[in-house]
């Protein structure tokens, strides 16, 4: 089973099914996590900001400059953990990835 492990705002950790080809934002939204995604995945709103477990962070594709700019404008930015969920497409190599929702307020 392909899955991602999500730590929500109350620090509960939940494993959810993850279809290859969906972005992490789509997976979170489809599983009713609190992700506003107001730009619908364009990478500009920052409301899908995640902290990725450091063991997984280095395995992700590199951020482009637009993602980096959006993240740097976000609360709780971390150079070693922050990513936009809408910019990461899930595939089998990411099964088991552990992410934490970031409060964007
Ligand atoms: S959905 Fe807006 S930045 Fe990801």
Automatic annotation (TrEMBL):
Pfam families xrefs: Fer2
Annotated keywords: 2Fe-2S, Iron, Iron-sulfur, Metal-binding
PROSITE patterns noted in UniProt: 2FE2S_FER_2
Protein origin, superkingdom: Bacteria
InterPro entries, A to Z: 2Fe-2S_ferredoxin-like_sf (IPR036010), 2Fe-2S_ferredoxin-type (IPR001041), Adrenodoxin-like (IPR001055), Beta-grasp_dom_sf (IPR012675)
Named cofactor requirement(s): [2Fe-2S] cluster
Ranges of residues in domain 2Fe-2S ferredoxin-type: 2-105
Residue stretches in coiled coil: none
Keyword flag Membrane: no
Keyword set includes Metal-binding: yes
Family membership noted in the UniProt record: Belongs to the adrenodoxin/putidaredoxin family.
The name this protein goes by in its record: 2Fe-2S iron-sulfur cluster-binding protein
């Amino acid at each position: 089973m392909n899955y991602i492990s999500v730590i929500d705002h109350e620090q509960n950790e939940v494993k959810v099914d993850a279809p290859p080809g969906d972005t992490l934002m789509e997976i979170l939204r489809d599983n009713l996590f609190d992700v506003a995604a107001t730009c619908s995945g364009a990478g500009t709103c920052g409301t899908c900001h995640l902290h990725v477990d450091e063991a997984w962070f280095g395995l992700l594709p590199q951020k482009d400059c637009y993602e980096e700019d959006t993240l740097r404008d976000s609360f709780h930015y971390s150079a070693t953990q922050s990513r936009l969920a809408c910019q990461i497409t899930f595939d089998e190599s990411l099964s088991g990835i552990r992410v934490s929702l970031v409060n964007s307020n």
